[in-house]
UniProtKB/TrEMBL annotation:
Keywords: Nucleus, Repeat, rRNA processing
The U3 small nucleolar RNA-associated protein 6 homolog C-terminal domain, residue ranges: 301-573
Compartments where located: Nucleus, Nucleolus
Domain of life, source organism: Eukaryota
Listed name of the protein: UTP6 small subunit processome component
Lineage, broadest ranks: Eukaryota, Metazoa, Chordata, Craniata, Vertebrata
Molecular function GO labels: snoRNA binding
Gene Ontology biological-process annotations: maturation of SSU-rRNA from tricistronic rRNA transcript (SSU-rRNA, 5.8S rRNA, LSU-rRNA)
Keyword Nucleus: yes
The family this protein is said to belong to: Belongs to the UTP6 family.
Amino acid sequence: MAERIEQRLEDRIPELEQLERVGLFTPKEIRAVLRKASALEYKIQRRALRKEDFVNYIQYEINLLELIKKRRARIGYSFKKEEIESSIVHRVHSLFKRATGKWKEDVQLWLSHVAFCKQWVISKWVLVTSHLLCIKTNSFISSVAALWIMAAKWEMETRLSSESARHLFLRALRFHPECPKLYQEYFRMELMNAEKQRKEKKEFEQAKMDLVGPLNLRYCLLMYHTLESVEFRLAVLSIAKLFDFTQDLQKEILESLQTEYADDPLTWDYMARRELDLGSLKSTEPTTKQMKVSEVTQREERCCAVFEEAVTAVPTEDMWKCYITFCLERCNRKTNSEELKQKRLERTLSVFSKAHESSLLPESLYKQWLQLLLESNLSEKATEVAEAATKRFSLSAEMWQMRLQVLIQLKNDNVTQCFEEAFKHLKSKVCGTLPLWALWVEWSEGTNSKQDTEALYQRSLHATAPAESVTMKEKYLDWAYRNGGYKKVKRVFTSLHENRPLSLDFFRKMIQIEKEQESCKMLHLREYYERALREFGSTDSDLWLDYIKEELSHPQGKPENCGSIHWRAVKMLQGDLVEDFISKYTLLQTGHL
């Protein structure tokens, strides 16, 4: 492996010599490039290859290309590109080929290769794309579809070949017949082609256009029936609206929505929002600000009238969510009219109340309602709504957290009582209460005595699930250091270090605290590292390396211990982590880490 790496580094020397000779890089920068390249080469020559190592190497080389480009522009030097850039581009291309050969189904890797080739090796990007399109994978349909669309767009816009673009789309749909995005973009392409033909009709005989135009429209009329879903129909309709010759097509799609999806909230949502675009003022008429406000108000009221009809016809949470989302969007729109702003706020709060009274307000929207109430200084109403929310969703930790945040923000006297009530309702929930405990101790830190807060931390360790108690132990350790100093945190650490499960951050936090002390003792650091390695030594190679670095750099460290630590690491680490550790340890010895 070492010989291969040396050879690859030697292959770089001609381009680096040229960079120095023409004044693009200094000797110091050349040495830095060699050091970095050496470290990157070690990582991609290991037996157990990692994708992120290739990505990092590729990104470094691309950054180098960009830097050279900027340096050239700055000094006005444009020669020797064959000796410098071409060599780097070829190396990046080879790295991509190795990576895509190893991880064939990683579409993002292929897309990155295509993007690189389009920028630096234009002649190769079509070839790379065609290689990817041959991969018949079901795991990344939407991403692969993006590649098909990219290729078809290139045929349509660069090569001006609608036939080739159509052929690619039809081929793509044979591979992915259930992919809505492909159908939508094919639909868009056919409409674009029809529009192009319409614009060119002056250059062709009318008889010829009469044959071609309707043919393309017939393609489009059939397209939107392919996939049965309201989302797909609406997406196709939004595309059709971009073209001024598709009125009949739009009408047909709209009628199909109202007939086939009359009970779907998305259909009602579209029909309501459509009122915003209808009945606008004629541009020839002189308008005043008041007239514009009046018109906007009328349009929004027409929208709300449709929504009111909708929540009666389709009384579901999803339908109310559509209605409320519309009201919130209008409420958040900027306007200079205080009257319009107030109307929007009142309307939104009214719709929230109606949905709540119907017991159809989704849990996720209560937070937005409360936020709006608090922003409007309606504190009493906010408290009332928060209480009602926890009654309706009494087993939801999120609802209780939301209610408690309201009480804390309003400095209510019943915060502690509400916390107790929350945990009484949630006592059957083993998991999911961590945010509540975190909120309680955070509130207690600023309100209660240190003794009460510490009692709360200790209580939380027994009340939370084992996995969640890990976070509370970290918070307890941090609080102890902030409020009691080194001696206090040492006592807390001693009381907890055998109380499993523990996190690596728990030990790293204690290591960092020790290192912040003026009399930082290596004896204590060894204890913390040894305890951490007892828990995580088989799964974290960086922990071993940090331990070795500490022995090498600390005034009280013993470099002679590094050999035994290395031996223990190799024996304890699992799988590929051993090779990863050895590689990093080698870099550490050579000064590259």
